[in-house]
Design brief:
Layout: E1 11-17, E2 27-31, E3 34-40, E4 46-50, E5 64-66, E6 69-71, E7 78-80, E8 86-88, E9 110-113, E10 116-121, E11 147-153, H1 157-165, H2 170-173, E12 187-195, E13 198-204, H3 211-214, E14 221-227, E15 231-238, E16 241-253, E17 256-265, H4 268-299, H5 313-330, E18 342-347
Antiparallel strand pairs: 1-10, 2-3, 3-4, 5-6, 6-7, 7-8, 9-10, 11-17, 12-13, 12-18, 13-14, 14-15, 15-16, 16-17
The chain binds FE2/S2 (inorganic) cluster (FES) and fe (ii) ion.
FE2/S2 (inorganic) cluster binds at residues 53, 55-56, 58, 72, 74-75, 77.
């Protein structure tokens, strides 16, 4: 198994939560090999531009916002936040007529849906205008986040995504008394179906061997979805109440991947317990990060890897979806989901 393309392009990437970007402040994000400077306009809407000054590469994010422009911290050149065109070069004297507007910085489409911020990264660096697709919609993520955790994994995004959807590592990597153990392993059969740019493990009652679910009370029903470029959600419903666990796996560059895990809920008990639950959620992420570091010891030799049925089927789907996404973009046609509804079986 070799990874497909470097990164997924012509798609919306998760760039943060609303409170990450405060008015008057600039925020730097590195996404899929691009350095991006995010900020808010006067009216509170967002803008995003390449975080590299065309003059001498200083990051705009270390500068400031000045009346509809971003000012570079190095020599004060100012660029329009809407069009990325250079509006002013302070070093020019009054008789030096330079057409500064010809100097342009790449801008990126950016949207804020509920609390989630999305940046569209096109494969064509000159892309301007409205993206042909909308960012994914998670209406439940309009409320304030209950828990929020982030981590950088030292691996290419493919390994991070695969690690996240891999059902067989749980009893080994996440072995702990309050979750599951090797002894509690049993055969599972879960129904999967294609979904928008991805697939879902359709709503089901989670395994009875997970003690943590019992904390929720009642009979929980869980649905897990995955979609490109690396968005995983787990929605747990108990009666009318919901817990949405939103995970975004975002490539920083070839060898680093950012993971953000955010919980949204209207379950009072979870909100109340969230300060105590956070360390448990953190434990999970850190266990995955430690395994990624171990895995790098082998990956640096670029070995051929194996995929088995059915526990690695989701990994195969991920690669197939990624390939079809790139192909459909290139050919300018609709994406045809390569996933067919199927029951997958494994022991975990
Ligand atoms: S590096 Fe930005 S103004 Fe010179
Ligand atoms: Fe894991």
């Amino acid at each position: 198994m070799k990874s497909t393309a470097r990164f997924v392009f012509d798609i919306w990437y998760f760039a943060g939560l609303s409170p990450d970007i405060r008015k008057g402040k600039l925020l730097r994000r590195e996404i899929a090999g691009e350095a991006i400077c995010l900020g808010r306009k006067e009216d509170g809407t967002l803008f995003a531009m390449r975080d590299i000054c065309p003059h001498r590469a200083a990051p705009f994010s270390a500068g400031c916002i000045k009346g509809g422009t971003v000012e570079c911290p190095y020599h004060g050149w100012r660029f329009g936040i809407d069009d990325g065109a250079c509006k002013e070069i302070p070093a020019l004297t009054s008789d030096q007529n330079m057409e500064t507007e010809k100097i342009k910085v790449r801008t990126f489409p950016v949207r804020e849906e509920g609390q989630l911020i999305w940046v569209y990264i096109a494969s064509d660096k000159r892309f301007a205008g409205e993206p042909p697709i909308d960012p994914p919609s998670f209406p439940f993520a309009a409320r304030k986040a209950t828990m929020d955790d982030a981590l950088t994994l030292n691996c290419h995004v493919d390994h991070a995504v695969i690690g996240l959807m891999d059902p067989a590592h749980g009893p080994y990597v996440h072995r702990q008394w309050w979750w599951r153990s090797e002894k509690s392993m049993h055969e599972k059969a879960k129904a999967f179906e294609p979904r928008e740019r991805g697939f879902a493990m359709a709503a089901h009652s989670p395994s009875s061997n997970s003690f943590a679910y019992k904390l929720l009370g009642g009979k929980p029903v869980t649905e897990i979805t995955f979609q490109l470029p690396g968005i995983r959600t787990e929605e747990i419903k108990v009666g009318k109440k919901t817990l949405l666990s939103f995970t975004a796996v975002t490539p920083i560059d070839e060898s680093r991947t950012h993971i953000r895990q955010i919980f949204f809920t209207d379950m009072r008990l979870i909100k109340l317990l969230s300060p105590f639950l956070k360390p448990f959620a953190q434990t999970f992420l850190r266990q995955d990060a430690d395994m990624v570091d171990l895995q790098q010891m082998g990956l640096k030799y670029d070995p051929t890897l194996l995929l088995i049925e059915d526990s690695d089927t989701q990994t195969k789907w991920y690669h197939a979806i990624k390939r079809e996404w790139a192909k459909s973009r290139k050919e300018g046609r609709a994406f045809k989901n390569p996933v067919n509804a199927k029951v997958l079986k494994w022991r975990s």
